[in-house]
Amino acid sequence: MPTRALHGTSAEDRVADRRQRLVEAALDVVGERGVADFTMTAVCRAAGLTERYFYENFARREDLLVALFDRSAAASLADAAAAADAAPHDLERRTRAAIAAITDTLVADPRAARLYREAVGHRELAGRRRDTSAAFAELLARLVVDAYPDLPRDDLLLTTTVLTAGVVEAVGSWLDGRLDTDLDRLLTRCARLVAAAVDQLRTDAIPSPEAP
């Protein structure tokens, strides 16, 4: 059955447009009020929509927060992967490009930065935040494999997971003003630590000479 159009727009398109407006408004509300004070009423007001249209797309305010976080995280990870793939084929420079892409996004949009920082204290967003960190660890692992295809994989994901935790903490501390350094130094140090850890993995993979 054909979908009835209004002024040339289908019902599905109108629903999608309202959902997009709600998600965009949600980011504004998080930026202004934070995750803890995030309400459906504030989002509807910012979007210029009634609660009826909120429930057309989301059962709870938490569902909107999750959708917002997932969208932001997916875009950041895609940007990181694209930046790494466009960088020279060198592990340190590709790692730096990936971290810089995510950091640049957070610097450019304080709303997204606040969402990511405050997700750690939210029951449902905390799991999404962990998933995002795990995905970035997997991206780092891919960059390592691209640079060193013959490197044993035994401790690779363990190493990149530990490194990701350190990078996330360092970037978060810098964004909060708790880490007194400039962005260039932060990115360089993070990238060099990744390269150094991988060098250690390569060294560990070299068989030890047999004892006499």
From TrEMBL:
Signal peptide: none annotated. The keyword Transcription applies. Pfam families: TetR_N. Residues 39-58 bind DNA. It comes from the Bacteria. Keywords: DNA-binding, Transcription, Transcription regulation. The keyword DNA-binding applies. InterPro entries: Homeodomain-like_sf, HTH-type_TetR-like_transc_reg, HTH_TetR, Tet_transcr_reg_TetR-rel_C_sf. Residues 16-76 form the HTH tetR-type domain. This is TetR/AcrR family transcriptional regulator. It comes from Actinomycetospora atypica.
